[in-house]
Design goal:
It is a single chain. 44% of the residues lie in helices and 9% in strands. By secondary structure, it is mainly α. The chain has three domains: 52 residues, no CATH class; 96 residues, DNA polymerase, domain 1, CATH 1.10.150.130; 187 residues, hpI Integrase, Chain A. A three-stranded antiparallel sheet has the order 1-2-3. The radius of gyration is 30 Å and the shape is elongated. The N and C termini lie far apart (98 Å). About 2% of the residues have low confidence.
């Protein structure tokens, strides 16, 4: 039985082959009306070739996709992810730079047909890298490319999921908690600009980037809380009660920002959003150096967690204040905490310090 025009055909190739039958489709006609063909693949029997033609016409796909190299797939994926304005999520500059770096680390794979890649090829590329971070970025790229290639029907199996990058090494960075004496020392030096912002982080468990992205509209002094957060779903838009030990600092910055008509609670000299590099490198590193304080800004957040644990604060309340996702299903789904609950727990920190002495120091500074 003759195939319909444009359907394609199956023919037997010359020579002694394991899969002698070639299925090909019609992709057009030249100027003389002659058919132009593209092979779909080779098969052991003619029936398998005809079945391949039927499946192609039931759900047409790009026959050229089987020829795409790793580099071709990366280029197609990169264009779709980073050059399509409709795709916003996960397209930040840092995200893009990380994927570009991972691609450069995969140079041994660039010219290999994507459909021919197997786990051992990917694993070998990973094994050539030294740092866990680089290996992690490369595996992340593999996952993205295989997701794209599967959707585009270039491959049917994701071989990247079997790539082993080893266990994440324990961090060698030791966090140093601000001691009670060091915290009192900070209060005694409130005359140094931005020292109060460090205390704000200590008593609210804030990341530096969270502090400088608080907007004045998200500060509710009459109800004694503010809203902020970045990074994770649990961390975003979280409600944080204001500690009595730091309320004056919030009031000070709120009044300053309002007077300057600034959108940000902690702004730069022009009333604009403070960049992390400016806040950390240009301001806080100089502040810490002038105080001879051997700390990083992230020590403030670790200090908060340590002190909340020291007063036996409710774990779920601490997690909610810090923006951590509860690990327990009961806590995640069934347990709810009010602003009053969070306020009660954060107020327990006052028992660890000579609170009245600290408040008296603040009163003299801001009177």
């Amino acid at each position: 039985m003759r195939n319909p025009n444009g359907f394609g055909c199956v023919y037997r190739a010359h020579g002694n082959r394991r899969k002698p039958y070639i299925a090909r489709i019609t992709i057009g006609w030249d100027e003389n009306g002659k058919q132009l063909f593209e092979p779909l693949g080779s098969f052991e029997t003619k029936a398998e070739g005809i079945q391949a033609l039927i499946e192609y016409h039931d759900a047409p796909y790009d026959p050229y996709s089987s020829k795409k190299t790793f580099a071709d797939v990366y280029a197609d994926w990169y264009k779709k992810k980073f050059q399509n304005s409709d795709n916003i999520k996960g397209t930040s500059k840092s995200n893009r730079v990380a994927y570009e770096y991972a691609y450069r680390c995969s140079s041994t794979l660039h010219n290999i047909k994507f459909k021919n890649l197997r786990t051992h090829d990917l694993q070998e590329a990973v094994n050539h890298l030294d740092s866990y971070s680089s290996k992690s970025k490369l595996k992340m790229l593999f996952g993205q490319l295989y997701l794209y290639a599967t959707n585009m029907e270039i491959v049917k199996k994701d071989y990247s999921e079997f790539v082993n990058i080893g266990a994440k090494p324990e961090s060698t960075l030791l966090r140093q908690v601000f001691t009670a004496d060091e915290i009192e020392f900070l209060y005694q030096h409130l005359d140094i600009p931005y020292v109060d912002t460090l205390l704000l982080m200590i008593f609210h468990g804030l990341r530096p980037t969270e502090l400088i992205t608080i907007k004045t509209k998200d500060v509710f002094l009459d109800q004694n809380y503010f809203v902020c957060g970045i990074k994770t779903e649990a961390g975003k838009h979280r409600t944080i009660p204001i500690s009595k030990l730091a309320r004056k600092f919030v009031e000070h910055w709120y009044a300053k920002s309002t007077a300057e008509n600034s959108e940000w609670l902690i702004s730069n000299r022009n009333g604009l959003q403070m960049k992390y590099t400016n806040y950390n490198r240009d301001i806080m590193q100089k502040v810490l150096s002038s105080l001879d304080a051997h700390h990083t800004l992230y020590d403030a957040r670790h200090s908060f967690a340590t002190y909340m644990d020291k007063v036996n604060a409710n774990k779920l309340c601490t997690q909610k204040i810090m923006g951590h996702s509860p690990k327990s299903l009961i806590d995640k789904v069934y347990t709810h905490k009010t602003l009053e609950d969070l306020q009660f727990e954060i107020d327990r920190l006052e028992t660890l310090f000579d609170t009245q002495k600290l408040l008296d120091i603040v009163q003299k500074k801001y009177r």
